[in-house]
Amino acid sequence: MAYAHPVAKLGEIPPGGRKLVTVGKIQLGIFNVGGEFFAYRNICPHAGAPVCVGRISGTTLPSPVYEYAYGHEGCILRCPWHGWEFDLRTGEHLVDPETKLKRIDVKIDGEALEKFPVERAGDTLQVILPTAPPSDGP
User: Fold this and answer.
1) 8 Å CB contact between 104 and 116
2) How far apart are CA 117 and CA 107, in angstroms?
């Protein structure tokens, strides 16, 4: 059974923006990348850093020697501890695609945008977790 947890109003996270939320004891970053919403656990797979507070930018692209092409502006999340770069659209590490951020789906109007949903209920975004999060109390 999945559980819906309201995390933001629809207009609260503009394109290029993010919101950090806590659901139970799970910290998440909700990102708006060009009008699409993506949610990830706030834990870097490399060393456990709070990755969702990292800089959102672009990155250098493959290019000939002594030429530097820049791209993917607003789609790259850089870990604040060691600079690992992740594509916000897929959660994949740019160097090793097998290393990924833990994705939480976002749904809008019942349509899953990613594996772990964030959904829209009226003007509210909700994160969908497969189980109830651990409570803060006894």
Assistant:
1) yes
2) 5
Compute the CA torsion angle 80, 85, 91, 92 (nearest 10 deg). -140
Q: Determine how many CB atoms are found less than 10 A away from the CB of residue 137.
A: 4
For the whole model, what pTM was predicted?
A: 0.77
Q: Give the amino acid at 56.
A: I
- Region 77-102: mean pLDDT is 92
Q: How many CB atoms lie within 10 A of CB 113?
A: 17
- The predicted-structure confidence for 7-16, as pLDDT tens digits, reads as follows 888 789 999 9
Number of Cβ within a 10 Å radius of residue 19: 17
Q: Which domains does the chain have, with CATH numbers?
A: 3-129 (2.102.10.10)
